[in-house]
């Protein structure tokens, strides 16, 4: 899914914002969940993006770890960008290795999409609004007002991560998939 998003996302207007066919999404999800082989290259990239966000939402405790939720939310309250980046890197060290590897690929994809935002209309802010709720959620449910405020903070964090991904994860994240 990430490889397809890397290949097609930068040239797809509204990637992660638009949904694909709900029927196709449901059928593909059932096939994937049952272990049936699926050729996603034959499907709409919007369905693939929806499937990927669904995959992220189903990671137990979230990819950024709900246990670290308060620390993630407070990162942007810290001093200058350097201090924020160092805090983020320290938080990343507390994540399981599999989460870190997946995050590198995710932000590699988001970075190449954001670099072509004039074409696809998905700048770092727009991408963060679409993807942030799939990356982190609080460990316990709360009121709609608190949840809305939380989503705004996480979206700001994800925007910062996209804009600074090379400094956070290393410049090699831009070439994890090779050339487009």
From TrEMBL:
<feature type="domain" description="Rho-GAP">
    <location>
        <begin position="1"/>
        <end position="169"/>
    </location>
</feature>
<dbReference type="GO" id="GO:0035023">
    <property type="term" value="P:regulation of Rho protein signal transduction"/>
</dbReference>
<dbReference type="InterPro" id="IPR000198">
    <property type="entry name" value="RhoGAP_dom"/>
</dbReference>
<dbReference type="Pfam" id="PF00620">
    <property type="entry name" value="RhoGAP"/>
</dbReference>
<keyword id="KW-0597">Phosphoprotein</keyword>
<dbReference type="GO" id="GO:0005096">
    <property type="term" value="F:GTPase activator activity"/>
</dbReference>
<dbReference type="GO" id="GO:0007165">
    <property type="term" value="P:signal transduction"/>
</dbReference>
<protein>
    <submittedName>
        <fullName>RHG20 protein</fullName>
    </submittedName>
</protein>
<keyword id="KW-0343">GTPase activation</keyword>
<dbReference type="InterPro" id="IPR047886">
    <property type="entry name" value="ARHGAP20-like_RhoGAP"/>
</dbReference>
<dbReference type="InterPro" id="IPR008936">
    <property type="entry name" value="Rho_GTPase_activation_prot"/>
</dbReference>
């Amino acid at each position: 899914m990430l490889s397809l998003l890397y290949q097609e996302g930068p040239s797809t207007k509204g990637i992660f914002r638009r949904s694909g066919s709900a029927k196709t999404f449901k059928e593909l999800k059932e096939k994937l969940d049952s272990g049936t082989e699926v050729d996603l290259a034959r499907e709409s990239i919007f369905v693939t993006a929806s499937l990927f966000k669904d995959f992220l939402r189903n990671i137990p405790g979230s990819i950024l770890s709900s246990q670290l939720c308060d620390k993630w939310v407070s990162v942007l309250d810290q001093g200058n960008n350097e201090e924020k980046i160092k805090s983020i890197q320290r938080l990343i060290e507390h994540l399981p290795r599999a989460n870190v590897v997946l995050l590198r690929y995710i932000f590699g994809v988001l970075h190449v999409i954001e670099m072509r935002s004039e074409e696809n209309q998905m700048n770092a802010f727009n991408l963060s609004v679409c993807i942030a709720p799939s990356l982190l959620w609080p460990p316990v449910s709360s009121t709609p007002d608190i949840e809305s405020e939380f989503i705004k903070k996480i979206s700001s964090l994800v925007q910062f991560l996209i804009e600074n991904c090379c400094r956070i994860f290393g410049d090699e994240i831009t070439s994890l998939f090779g050339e487009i």
